[in-house]
Amino acid sequence: GLQDTAHNLLGSRTGAVVLLDIKTGATLVLASTPHYDPARLVAATKPERDAAATYWASLVDNPNAPLVLRATDGAFTPGSTFKTVTAAAAIDTGIASPTTIYEDNGSLTIDGRELVENNRPDDTIDQWSVADGYAYSLNLVFAQLGLDVGASTLNRYAQAFGFGGGIPYDLPIIQSQVANSAGFLDSPVALAETAFGQGQLLASPMQMALIAACIANDGKMMAPYLVETVTNQDGETLTSRDPSVWRTPISAATASTMQQLMIGAVDYGAVGGAAVPGYVVGGKTGTAETGTGEPHSWFIGFIGDPEPRYAVAVVLEHGGGEVGAAVSIGQGVLASAIASN
Question: What's the number of CA atoms in the CB half-sphere (13 Å) around residue 44?
């Protein structure tokens, strides 16, 4: 039912939804669009083979690449959802706290490159806390935060969250990356842009769902899984999956602080559309420039009653201005998950 909900909410949009049980790592939704019907590729007779071949050719020739399972095989610039990693690195190391103040007056020049802020909710205010910067997705606050964190520390925490390595799973998952080259973050401009989610960053929806789940699960990132048990025709269990912690990239205290930042983004920040009456919801949006075409639209978040239980990641490929749509999809899936129990 949750899988159907995700596909119905995605509709004709190109994108993906991943929903995880934060306590176990169980995959509850793994939705990718466009998708295909594997039953149409099964053939036992010549007419069926001809039909299957025709269908296969249509899939291969489709420019929207329905054979790519975007939830696991899609590599997308994460945009401002990566600010979650930057903030966690700063807080976990003590470099900054939610109340640390940075100046954001609309522009910032780094090594001759001017960065422009488009997200300030009040142009008369120049001083913003890290918590406000996260809630309103202020790029210039996070550019400065990233410079304070430094290249090696930001890279180390990104790797701790799973970037640059393989994710253990029942299906192949494309490897997320911080940069194409080892020296990329040596540039202050590159470091600043990476800190607010641009640069050479690439992430799968599964990767970003795991980050949201880790924050919601007190800093413990559970190993994700799709298949819980395998039984034979007699009902005997051949294999079973016990939940296990895969990584612990941040302390429980840092995770608790990050939960409050994500909740603040929903309660008073730019992610109010993710709210579900009667439940605690935290979230973060992202608009990711790609260099070609419209930007990707992202939402990551969690829901609890009040203890967090489920985490979600939504990406709309080249969704442009549809950040609200990504939030709405994520909100719908989270609401359905919490209501089903």
Answer: 1
